[in-house]
Every structure is written in C-alpha cells, then in structure tokens.
Amino acid sequence: MPANLWAVFADTAARFGDRTAIEIQRADRLDRFTYRELHDMASVRAAWLSSNGIGKGDRCAILAHNDAHWCAAYLGILKLGAVAVPLDTNYSAAQVATIVRDSGATMLFVSDKLLANAADTSEHVANIHGEFEADREPAATIGSSDPAVILYTSGTTSDPKGVVLSHGNLLAERDAAFAAVTVSERDVVLGVLPLFHSLAQLANLLLPFAVGARVVYLETINSTDLIRALTDRKITIFACVPQFFYLIHQRVM
Rounded to whole angstroms, how far apart are CA atoms 100 and 118? Predict the structure, then answer.
C-alpha cells in the first residue's frame, strides 16, 4: 500500500494513463486532461519547484479556482515532499499575506484573476497557468507521517488557524470514505466545491484520483451550468453542501 498521496496518484496514472482525469466545463467548450497529462503537468511543476530551491517540508500556497492547473500544482507540491497550503479564493490581499506569512509558505501559485489578491505578499509568486520548465527530477522519500497539507479554518469565530494534515491522515480519511461509499474508474464526479475546502479535496480529488474516476469542474457556478453538467457529463457522484441541492431544487421548481 503506497505510503503517500503522490504514490497513490502515480499508480493510478500508470494504470489509467489514457483515461480522462479532469474535464472543465466552460461556457463555449469542454477542456479535457488525461491522467498521463495531469501526471506530467504535476511532475514538471515539482521539478520547477525543486530548481527554484523548494524542497521537502517547504510550504507552497495555492490561490486559484478549480481546474487542472490547481490539481497539478497540488500534486506537484506533494511529489516534492513539500506541503500544500490551499487558500480561500475570497481572501483579500491582506488576508492572503497574513495566511502566507503564518503558514511559512515561500512560494505562492496564483491565477491571473486573483493576482491582485497576492499584491501584499513578498514571497515568490508564480502564475499557476504559466509555462514551467525544469530539467531536475526531484527525488524525495515521503512517509505517511510527513506533512502533506495545511488547511486553514474559515475564521468565523476567530482568526483562521492552520491545521497540519499528514499523508497518513489523508490516506486514512480516504480509506474511511471508501469503507462507506463505492467509487471506481467508471464513476464521474461533479466537483463544485472549491478545492481549498477539505471536503472538496477528499471527494473531488483524493477519492477519484485514487481509482481512475473522471472529475468535472465548472468554470462558473450557477443553477444553469449545474443542471447542464448533471445532464451532459453523465455524473454519477455529486458530493456537496446543502446549498447546491437548494440550487437544483430552485431550478427544477
């Protein structure tokens, strides 16, 4: 049994390389990425991070909306043995700077749309959709007790607090979910929750990528696009919070 999340994904990519891993439903098109393409995207980012001085245990933040590049950055960070710090896309520039500083992140992946939200941070900032080139293949020994992710609480009752989760923590959470639900390579998962959300990382990334399922992310979240995805993408699994079921009910009624 693989002892870390990258090894789990790499095994899935080796078995299902030609299978579609991610679809992005946009207003005018559908973007597709196979498991092999996602694996290569993540590996290039891991090599690029390594060539820029990032190593095992270093923290790398992600500030972007759901897409294949978010997943590639996340997986690339894990491959390196570094620690991913997903950030809420609703954070202001001041909040981003505070969380980056508190987490100790030395690298921030950010999308063009949210670049202004990174204006107050002095750490290295990289465009998550940019071109990444590197010739160094990082080699890291990653165990189940090594930290994988720092998730920040919403801050509804006080300042957000970072919770460190190890590879073993997340693998145990995945195994507990598999004990309750059946997910296979035949499933299609609709991922509407933002990936900085703990449930989204489990249901819309860790679970499907462990078995070779297809994940569908939406460019825009509204009842029209939600219904279109459920109708056109042959969705079999939809894990979300009650708000989205209210959207569906409202549209149907």
Answer: 10
